[in-house]
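If you are new to this repository, start here. Below is one unmodified record pulled from the training split, so you can see the exact layout before writing a loader.
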Amino acid sequence: MAGPNGDPHVLGGGTGDEGDEGGDTFEEEEYAAINSMLDQINSCLDHLEEKNDHLHICLKELLESNRQTRLEFQQQSKQLNTGADVQGSQPPA
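And here is the target side for that same chain:
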């Protein structure tokens, strides 16, 4: 049986001419195990991607919330400064 790049797999250093059916079974089991591991890795990566997307959304919401809070704080600060300037320019009673 040829490998993924077309090179023949030779088990046990033989030439592959022995007609060993056990070798094909071993290779199939090996490929099945590798496929299973790749499926698990793929599932883990999908899960990580979902968590990353969720985290990204949460961080964007937090950033927007912080921007809103900062703008509100700046507006309040301006109003207080404007009020203090108006009171400071009036003569004391």
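Two things worth knowing about this chain: Residues 34-79 form one domain. Residues 10-18 have pLDDT under 50 and may be disordered.
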